[in-house]
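Quarterly update, task 2.4: glutamic acid-bound model.
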Amino acid sequence: MNENSIYQKSRQEVFEVGEKYNISEEKLEEFLEPDKILEIKIPIKIDDETITFKGFRSQHNNNLGPYKGGLRFHPNVNKDEVMALSLWMSLKTAVVGVPFGGAKGGIAVDPKQLSEKELENLSREYVRRVYEILGPQKDIPAPDVNTNPKIIDWMVDEYVKINQKLKNKSQISKNELYATFTGKKKLGLSGRTEATGFGGVAILKKLSEKLKLKPENTTVAIMGFGNVGYYFADFASKAGFKVVAVSDSKGGIIKRDSKGNFIPLDIPLVYECKMEKGSLNGCYCAGGVCDTRGGQLITNEELLQLPVDILVPAALENVITENNMQNIKAKIIVEMANGPVTPKAKHYLIKKGVFITPDILANSGGVAGSYIEWEQNLKNKTYKKDDVLKRLEKLMFSAFENVWKTAERENTNLPEASYLVALQRILK
Ligand code: GLU
């Protein structure tokens, strides 16, 4: 096995669970391999030059419904990563109980280096090159790391245009065309932007109930302040949890009183500051005089090692590894990123008694929201945000209860129970 392959490692992890619960090896092998992987070149004009980017779409499995999963724009996107992420999507849609399979895609690019027009051209060119394999009953992309509703809107628009050009092909209605992408602004779902963070906090609430934690006595540190991390922070603090540390790719902030105790952060204020300054760096002063408020800048590594009750990695994969697992002090980890804890670190931490709520459960609110959006488009309706969030919370609670019961019945941890629930549904 290639030690650096994140797909091989995640495959191995799932395989071990399957073996333990006597799931047929043949079926497992068949499931684990992605159904189809598309690797494409995406040339676009930048100034006077043509620059070619690499793009991917891994359609992992569609036993339970159309392939479903996000598209990320990040310099580290590669075939191996996309394969792993697509496998996790297959498991995630099954755990949260929506009728989708799993997929993932992306482009190896640093979108921050592109102008808005270049980004638009790249997004549209991607769609032109994967058009054939997409569709409301085939494969439905969504936002992921560094992609957002605006990018998805360009993509839908391109998808609609291509469809209009190919008039002789099977005509599908406007709603169906729009149902081919989720996380859109135009004809999108009110509540979809918040869905992943909101869903994560629904899981956090259930977990706190089970573990008898009082939100007002529970400190939370969140790594990542993008769409997922920010909404998680916001909903968690509204639910009464003490969010004491947040960070983005440049570093994080905490505040302490004169005795060194954490002071909860004012999340809306921190958000406002981040919008103004472009990064969290410097936001420790937000809302008051820094010196008297005990604001402090920390690195991402320091955030991971804070003595808080709950640690929420909500950025990228592989941040808790063999290199830092010994220094993790939190008693609970809620994985809001995909794959933030490596399998080895997971084993070590679980053995040490750390309670891990796995990504495929904790961050499944995003794809559950996507399901509601897809349904809204196919039924040609416009759902209200309150109703959406209520429905989403129900889906999350029921997914959690199911995984929790499975963990109790099998006398095991939540990551293993989540895999088991997913595999049993997919391979039934
Ligand atoms: N990118 C999100 C995820 O990793 C959402 C995927 C979707 O809605 O299709 O779960």
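Highlight for this quarter: The radius of gyration is 21 Å.
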